[in-house]
Design a protein that fits this description.
Length: 310
């Protein structure tokens, strides 16, 4: 009888540790087949997923023995946590395990967008010499506004301060008088508008919810400085993609970096081709060797402890 079903990639070491104690079904072809997942979950107490497997609907309806879901990552928008709670199913995200990796990618994006010459490789190979067209800016002395001050926001703040940036932040769930701001050397803002007003770069680190969907539309981006850059390394849907494209083309903002999208992978009709000052990566913020090791082992431990009754 299967103890744990795993539907997406897990580190080999963590997998072998689980297999040494439990009967594990590991099938990365299942993630987009909810009916088959539901069938495979019959009598199974443990489930481990990443961000593509949808743990909702028929999967949870037919989960007759499920005790816990381990999420190899931090976002929970692919898991119906309300239904899980109602059924007594524990959900374990890998909180904090990939924060450093996401923060490092955000810092890389800052340098790439502020120093335009990082993207000049093809021109230089071709014998062009666009020095004057690629006049960049230094990040030191600039203001970074962090939207959402959880573990990733804190990891990014530490790095940005280390290169001489002024860091501000807004998080509606942390009181402006909280000691956490001083602990991290960050200036809190009372509202999102206040955070955007003087920022040279804005980095989003909030979950996707009804409250945050389309949080950054044209109206919001219009409150940013015209040379400011916007980062979304959190979840697709927080930034309205069509509005972002228009904002970049019309010069409403100076640049953008997206690692997450409404639809992943992008479809052929996506709006991003030919958009200026736009940097795209394939939802890879958390994907480093070190983060994968931490995430996989954290979730393996959490699910194993749940099944042991620890």
């Amino acid at each position: 009888m299967t103890d744990i079903l795993i539907t997406e990639f897990i580190d080999q070491g963590a997998l072998e540790r689980l297999q040494s104690e439990f009967d594990v079904k590991y099938d990365v072809e299942l993630w987009d087949k909810p009916e088959k997942i539901a069938e495979a979950l019959q009598g199974v107490p443990g489930l481990i997923v990443r961000n593509q497997t949808q743990v909702r609907g028929v999967v949870l309806e037919k989960a007759d023995a499920l005790k816990c879901v381990g999420r190899l990552g931090v976002g929970l928008d692919n898991i119906d946590t309300d239904v899980c709670a109602a059924k007594g199913i524990e959900v374990f995200p890998a909180t904090g395990a990939n924060s450093d990796s996401v923060a490092e990618l955000a810092m890389g994006g800052l340098y790439v967008l502020f120093r335009k010459s990082y993207r000049a490789t093809e021109d230089v190979i071709a014998g062009k010499w666009p020095r004057m067209q690629l006049l960049g800016r230094e990040v030191a002395g600039k203001t970074l506004a962090i939207i959402g001050f959880g573990s990733i926001g804190k990891a990014l703040a530490w790095r940005a301060k280390g290169v001489g940036m002024t860091v501000t932040a807004w998080d509606p769930y942390i009181d402006i008088s909280s000691a956490v701001w001083a602990e991290h050397g960050v200036s809190p803002r009372a509202s999102l508008d206040d955070a955007l007003m003087d920022a040279d770069a804005v980095s989003i680190h909030v979950p996707l919810s009804d409250e945050t969907r389309n949080m950054f539309d044209m109206a919001t981006m219009s409150k940013m400085k015209s040379d400011a850059v916007l980062f979304n390394l959190a979840r697709g849907g927080i930034v309205n993609e069509n509005d972002l494209v228009k904002a970049l083309k019309d010069g409403v903002i100076g640049g953008a970096f997206l690692d997450t999208y409404d639809v992943e992978p992008l479809t052929a009709d996506n709006p991003f081709a030919g958009v200026p000052n736009l940097l795209l990566t394939p939802h890879s913020g958390a994907r480093t060797v070190e983060a994968d090791d931490r995430v996989c082992n954290m979730i393996a431990d959490a699910v194993a402890n749940c099944l042991r009754g620890a």
